[in-house]
Design a protein that fits this description.
Shape: globular
CATH architecture: 3-Layer(aba) Sandwich
Number of domains: 1
Strand content: 5-15%
Order of helices and strands: HHHHEHEHEHEHEHHHEHE
Radius of gyration: 18 Å
Largest sheet: 7 strands, mixed
CATH class: Alpha Beta
CATH superfamily: Vaccinia Virus protein VP39
Strand order of the largest sheet: 3-2-1-4-5-7-6
Oligomer: single chain
Number of strands: 7
CATH topology: Rossmann fold
Helix content: 40-55%
Length: about 290
Amino acid sequence: MKPNSASRTAQYMALFRAVETVQSKSKRLFADPYSIKFLDTGLQLVTKIASIPVVGNLIPKLIHQKGIGAISSGIARTKYIDDLLETEVNAGCKQLIILGAGFDTRSIRLDFLQNIAIIEIDHPDTSNFKKKIYRDAIGDLPGNVSFQQADFNKQTLNEIAEITNINYSIQTTIIWEGVTNYLTQVAIDTTFDFTKEFNSPFNIIFTYIEKEVLDNPQNFKGTKQLFENLKRNEEQWTFGFNPNELSSYLKRFGLMLIEDLNATEYRNRYMPHRQGILEGYEFYHVAIAKR
């Protein structure tokens, strides 16, 4: 991420949610009225065009052409994680920790989280920008949300936890979306190791990319342009998992892999009929593990 600026990738994810929000109620997977507030003037205009009948239908396809598979993967995984989270809340989750929260607006757009203690942890530049947007959008910061700042490549969660009011004795869910692919192996290991601190029912919902896309990007459609964009924004990917090895890796930390879907699988679950934007990003996964 460029110094003293919010993540460009976080803004693109907000764009995807904003474009989805202006789709018809019968078509859209979710509504996120706050996402447009994170966008610069140009991307706000894109969202407004997307709301125009007929003409607006072209916007997702144009975004898809700029980044093969990114928008459909981003939209479908948002809904998938929402559903996984709601299942956990219904099962008794009392605390939500969002690592690398970016412009995730679940804390204010999902009604079932109103009585859940939420801790968001992110890079200071992104976190400060987000808090400003929240104050402008809803007048104040949500009372059930604590905003903490950290650099996961420089600080361990144990260090962050020393200044964070984490309750290790209540049922907890961690969301770690769009982060692991920017970290080092050591940072990822120490984060999973941190989950051993919880002595109550616990699960972690996280995303990752396949190691193969880093080793042999030519095997995946659209990666040449994707990697050029990441380099331009100084947000290059650095780490990926081998899906076949994930379950055994998680067992090292006392975690059991419950489900692991790639973009093709979660798109087929939530948006199988949206033709023209469903290819690409097959290497992007959402997984959930429990203890």
